[in-house]
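Exercise 4. Each item below gives a protein and its sequence. For each, produce the structure-token representation.

Item: Ubiquinone/menaquinone biosynthesis C-methylase UbiE (Rhizobium viscosum).
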Amino acid sequence: MERFMSDDRRLHWENVYSTKGEADVSWFQESPAPSLDLIHLVQAKQSDAIVDVGGGASRLVDSFLAEGLDHVTVVDLSAAALDKARKRLGAKGDRVTWIAGDATQWEPPEAYDIWHDRAAFHFLTDAVEQAAYIERLKRALKIGGHLIMGTFALDGPEKCSGLPVARHSAESLASLLGAGFKLIDSRRHDHSTPWDSVQRFQFSTFQRVA
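Answer:
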């Protein structure tokens, strides 16, 4: 059953990224300022291994490279989304590790200093899949490393791209993550879509302490 859910999601996102332009989706950001602010908050270093889960065609990876953060992995269900990002970056994209895979099922190939997610976790509405995601997070994030999680806020949209979402607070995420994670920052962000509607996000930053 989990495999079918994963396949359905993959086909959904392949269709989205194959049929829509970069600025034709609600989550498009010309500049991913909220995520970059938190990358600066945790004092990311050039040597840090960073993974952006659900990175898709986001321009966050462009900003990482521009700031000299070039030990970057981008994971997304949609190969079409990753291909768009690679083509946009040109030769610079060769410095990035691109992985087409499901965050609830992939096997992280290395340990990371920073795990960033603004797009994947809130689409996991099933407790079993949430637990599978967190299992991989714990397997891959170094002790002392940081988790930056952007989700729809409790008063955010109930659906995105036609799919139901799970809305979170910093407290609900802390409960799911368990005692090994310490909350170090919590902030809200009102994201303006390309058609000027507002989506309310919650950004929660944790340090892994055990």
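Check: The mean pLDDT is 91.
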